[in-house]
User: What shape does this take?
Amino acid sequence: MNIILYLASKYLKFKASDRGISAIAVIAFLSIVVSSAAAIVILAAANGFHSNLREKLMYRDAHIIILGPGRGIGNYEQYIDKILEIEGVEDAVPYFDRQALIKGRLNTWGALVKAYPGKFYETDREFSEQFRLIDGEFDFSSPHSIILGENLAINIGATVGSWVHLTVYSEEFFSLQYRFRVSGIFSAGFAEYDSTLAFMSFEDAQNVFDAVGYAYGIAVRVKDPMNVEKYMPLISEVCPYQKWHWKSLNRNSLIALENEKMLMQIILAFFFVVVSFNMLSTMIAMVLDKKEEIGILKAMGLKPGDALHVFLFDGFLIGNIGSALGTVLGLLLTNSLNSILRGIENVVNFINRISYYIASLFVAAPPPQRFEFFKPSVYYITEFPLEIQYGDVAFVIMLSVIVSTLAVIIPARKASKLRPVEVLRND
Assistant: This one.
């Protein structure tokens, strides 16, 4: 065993007198390090974007919604009191969720009108984070006021303070029109919401939808929304109406996110397979370079199995150390990626300002626009939403170790089958 460890470590040492073989081994090692680091950052970015989208899906319709027949739930306050007594339920409020037409200065647009009572926007922190106010005020208690999504306001030509007409249809299919003042404009960071959502006060919705004394439904928020299924039986015991949780309402979107994550892992696996060919060529070159030494050692009593283990251990060592260093590097890059991007922005903008100052001494030139990776006017995000999951870290480490070890099997078998007589006779 000692001779195996000695030879394995000896073949991986870099020496200036070597014919480039150790340098090739270093390149193979660095390829594992860089690949592991890149995989960590890519998966963290994917997790961040997926979590961001899940939160938007989760908070648009609450964690659990309870719907009543006809006009809705008549004695909703009684049911809300019982639901709030359930352990793990954080909040339960009545709400409305109806389709309507909104007419502004430019166009008429279809919208999904949602209504909540009182200071809901101020008391529900998660909701206010997902539906960020960009102009005006977000107050559900203001009568005859409406809050529009950013894109919806642009499409109909509405601004804060302007008046819009809301058209709804009664059960007899008569169109009813109401006049509302735009009190606020929000951005959800999701084009579908910004283009279709509008909010009003719960009391106004009762009048508009001819449901005074009723609630279209009850929105329930729980402490553990990722395991929302466990609350359903408890709520069913105190509330007999139909109910759905956010996972069932957004099943297709959640399945798409899972498939996207799986596809990304498959692509990364193929990426590591490509890296393994670099390992394979490196180890084959090392075996060819060391064949005289291996032949002499075999003539002195080195067993074929020992020669096999030497190169297998080399691949295992490169994979383990490379994946460990790559993982550390990937975690550091993930935690500092947004700071690095801001630093790059500052450097580029500094160079642009210096260049503009020098150029303005000779010719008249317009001032340069500020360079930003995420422009607020174009993108919904201002930085990468990164999220590290330990399962992804384990996946990357396992993949790099397995690939690097499998890549050296063919060279190791070649080394074990070298015949000392042929090697010494030919060389």
